[in-house]
Design goal:
By secondary structure, this protein is an alpha+beta fold. It has a single domain, classed as Thiol Ester Dehydrase, Chain A, CATH 3.10.129.10. About 25% of the residues lie in helices and about 40% in strands. The longest helix is centred in the N-terminal third of the chain and has 16 residues, at about 25-40. The N and C termini lie close together (about 10 Å).
């Protein structure tokens, strides 16, 4: 599972008055794909918070909007881990419609202690799995 791909249908609520996906909603699509990637790897974020006292938070985002997605289109959102560190990850993500790239994102994720909100190492079993993904 090098590049995880999650299909999404564009709903009316995702769009502006012109039927074009509102720019901030591309970030929601990226988030869903990262969450579903973790789920496909056997990890639920709520269980990580309870069992390991960790949460993942977005540290930074670089995004390039290339083409618009529109109401009722079927799009694909990919999530690929490109850098794995002890307490952070970098994802490269794409939103595509067929062969057309609509949006590109580089998202830096930090792993924090759920209580103190300070950086915390990713659990070793998950860290090894993530290292094997990129």
């Amino acid at each position: 599972m090098k590049k995880f791909i999650w299909p999404i249908r564009v709903y009316y609520e995702d769009t502006d008055a012109g039927g074009v996906v509102y720019h901030a909603n591309y970030l929601n699509f990226f988030e869903r794909a990262r969450t579903e990637m973790l789920r496909a790897m056997g990890y639920e974020q709520d269980e990580l918070m309870v069992n390991d006292s960790i949460i993942f938070v977005v540290r930074s985002v670089q995004i390039d909007y290339l083409h618009s997605a529109r109401f009722n289109e079927q799009i694909q959102v990919s999530a690929e881990v490109t850098i794995v560190k002890k307490a952070s990850l970098i994802f490269e993500q794409l939103i595509t419609r067929g062969d057309d790239v609509l949006c590109k994102g580089i998202i830096r994720i930090a792993c924090l202690d759920a209580k103190s909100m300070r950086p915390k190492a990713i659990p070793e079993n998950l860290l090894e799995l993530l290292k094997n993904e990129h």
